[in-house]
Design a protein that fits this description.
The chain folds into two domains: about 90 residues, no CATH class; about 230 residues, Bira Bifunctional Protein, Domain 2 (BirA Bifunctional Protein, domain 2, 2-Layer Sandwich). Helices cover about 40% and strands about 20% of the residues. Strands 1-4-5-9-8-7-6 form a seven-stranded mixed sheet, sandwiched between helices. It has a two-stranded antiparallel sheet with strand order 2-3. A hairpin with a 2-residue loop joins β6 and β7. α5 crosses α10. The radius of gyration is 44 Å and the shape is rod-shaped. The termini are far apart. The structure holds phenylalanine. Phenylalanine binds next to β8 and β9.
């Protein structure tokens, strides 16, 4: 009997400790030896046939065998769990010394670049940014800017009408001037960048969609000297310390007096070159003193307040700055172009 028990223990332990024993196999082994119909159980059942003095000895041995088997199973289970954990840890190990995957970051579009630059310059001079809709009322795009219906100035900015004559795609960011002045009382100092539309055919210097940046300052005692000083600061910041500016008389219905503003050519310093077409000067924007009619239409007393306004094309500034000779490059999204900025 005792030998039988010992051999049960030995074979059970051998099976438990085999390398390929897994949890399922352990359960099989447990049932095989310790289960109701298991080998050890069978031995215990046969105890009745033993001589009374043998029973305690065999009984004790049987208990020891069961304990040993149970202990071996528990230990194996534990080592299986530890091995599984180790495998998992190894599998999920993160090597922080491996070079990271570089994600491709895009480039800032040259127009955005110029817009941000200009915003910085004007914010530095106390302006804040105002926005207006691209789909605009005829009223804000024309009428409130002293361009009544049938005014010939409308011809120079023919645009896209959404409805018969009331709603259109704005042809200039000057529409934002009227919107701001209606809502806000002086002092006013805003810039307004954004898209504008004109029904022009596309060529190297024209596009039916382009970008402008408007500027407006209204307060007591604002003069053309303020406009000039502010534009000079802008020109020097944007095109270099040596840049000079020049005002040429012009006409805009919403400013009086009006001017076209040139900067001295930053390529040749004013001597005349390919960029300035031999002129020494480059036109960059339109400006003037806000027309009294515009002020009063927007509810601002022209006797008390005066203001200046200016507007420039962002494409034009970007083309000058980066020597881009075809406006279409901005809209084609050719990465070979965009990547250069
Ligand atoms: N809105 C004018 C244009 O598109 C530019 C401008 C703005 C002129 C403000 C004077 C004052 O041509």
């Amino acid at each position: 009997m005792k030998e039988k028990l010992n051999s049960i223990r030995q074979s059970a332990l051998e099976q438990i400790n085999q390398r390929d024993t897994d949890n399922a196999k352990l359960e099989e082994i447990r049932v095989k030896y310790l289960g109701k119909k298991g080998e050890l159980t069978a031995v215990l059942r046969g105890m009745g046939q033993l001589a009374p003095e043998e029973r305690p000895v065999i009984g004790q041995t049987a208990n020891e065998v069961r304990e040993d088997i149970e202990k071996a199973i528990a230990e194996k289970k534990q080592s299986l769990a530890a091995a599984a954990l180790e495998l998992k840890l190894k599998d999920e190990k993160l090597d922080v010394t491996v070079p990271g995957k570089k994600s491709k970051i895009g480039h800032i579009h040259p127009l955005t670049l110029v817009q941000r630059e200009l915003e910085d310059v004007f914010i530095g001079m106390g302006f804040s940014i105002a926005e207006g809709p691209e789909v605009e009322y005829d009223y804000y795009n024309f009428q409130a800017l002293n361009i009544p219906e049938n005014h010939p100035a409308r011809d120079t900015q023919d645009t896209f009408y959404i409805t018969d004559d009331k709603i259109l795609l704005r042809s200039q960011t000057s529409s934002v001037q009227a919107r701001v002045m209606e809502k806000q009382k002086p002092p006013i100092r805003i810039i307004s960048p954004g898209r504008v539309y004109r029904s022009d055919a596309m060529d190297a210097t024209h596009s039916p969609l382009f970008h402008q940046m408007e500027g407006l300052a209204v307060d007591e005692g604002i003069t053309m000297g303020d406009l000039k000083g502010m534009l000079e600061t802008f020109a020097k910041t944007e095109f270099g310390e040596d840049t000079k500016i020049r005002f040429r008389p012009h006409h805009f219905p919403f400013t009086e007096p009006s001017a076209e503003v040139d900067i001295s050519c930053f390529m040749c310093g004013g001597k005349g070159c390919r960029l300035c077409k031999g002129e020494g000067w480059i036109e960059i924007l339109g400006a003037g003193m806000v027309h009294p009619n515009v002020l009063s239409m927007c509810g601002i007393d022209p006797e008390k307040y005066s203001g200046f306004a200016f507007g420039m094309g962002l494409e034009r500034i970007a083309m000058l700055k980066y020597h881009i000779d075809d406006i279409r490059m901005f809209y084609e999204n050719d990465v070979r172009f965009i990547e250069q900025f």
